Amino acid sequence: MSQRTLFPCPSSPNCVASHATDERHAIVPFQYKKSRAEAKEALKAAIATLPRTKLVEEDESYLHYEFTSLLLRFVDDVEFLFDETTKTVHFRSASRTGYSDLGVNRQRMEQVRALVSGKL
Q1: Is residue 31 a contact partner of residue 42, using CB atoms and an 8 Å limit?
Q2: Do residues 95 and 7 touch, judged by C-beta distance below 8 A?
Q3: Strand pairing of 75-83 and 88-95?
Q4: Can you give the residue ranges of every domain in the chain?
Q5: Considering only CA atoms, which of 25, 39, 20 is closest in space to residue 84?
Q6: Which fold has domain 28-116?
Q7: Side-chain half-sphere of 48: how many Cα atoms within 13 Å?
Q8: Could you read off the pLDDT of 71-109 as tens digits, one per residue?
Q9: pTM given for the model
Q10: Rounded CA gap, 39 and 92, in Å?
């Protein structure tokens, strides 16, 4: 199986990614202490508490969710990649359409960070 990677963010500001190097898109990844399987289940449980989320793809080290906004039904793609070597969860959260997201993707990922704090 080839090593899965997350796509870089586009130049537009409606994306954050833990592997980005520029200030506009960069965000700190999550760390985990439990086994990858346990950490993944804890992350899934946290995301299940958020509204309008749908898990669209999963494998042993990867999760892909769709988050739909309440009013305009915009869809954001949120991907998580578990790196067992470094016990790191890298992620990318990006709007499918539009240019600016008014910081929504970054706010969401900080909300997820707070939800999983101490649980991974």
Answers
A1: no
A2: no
A3: antiparallel
A4: 28-116
A5: 39
A6: TATA-Binding Protein (3.30.310)
A7: 6
A8: 888 999 999 999 999 999 999 999 999 999 999 999 999
A9: 0.94
A10: 17
